[in-house]
Amino acid sequence: MKKLTDEEIQKLLEQSLNIPDELDGDDDTKAYQLLFDGLREEPEAGLPYNFSKKVVAQVQHARNHRQDVKLYVFMAIGIVFGVAIVAAFIAVFNYKAGVQLVTILDTYKWVVIFMIAGVLGIQYLDQGLLKKRKGLV
User: Fold this and answer.
1) pTM of the model
2) Is 60 exceeded by the pLDDT of residue 24?
């Protein structure tokens, strides 16, 4: 009796032809029959097992991002108010020095803005690298 090759068994099953009776008990034929029967069934429409974990991770990431943005905004406001308070104290105790400080800040405002942006950028990158190192991102 001739044994069917894998390709021949696949062709028979794909075309829904009857497998000859003498080959019906063959292990390869049974395995292919089980495989094709399993592939004909539609998979269950459901959520993956780690779906809730992924959702929680995304919500936590969004929450952390909002908190980080708040931190950076408060840092920028704090730096600006800190410089303003120092300038006000200098102006109160030594008017000439206060005027000079305001003039210098006006002259070099872009340098001051760049420095504030640099401090915030370093803080942002530092936090990002720490989170990546800890595996939180």
Assistant:
1) 0.45
2) no
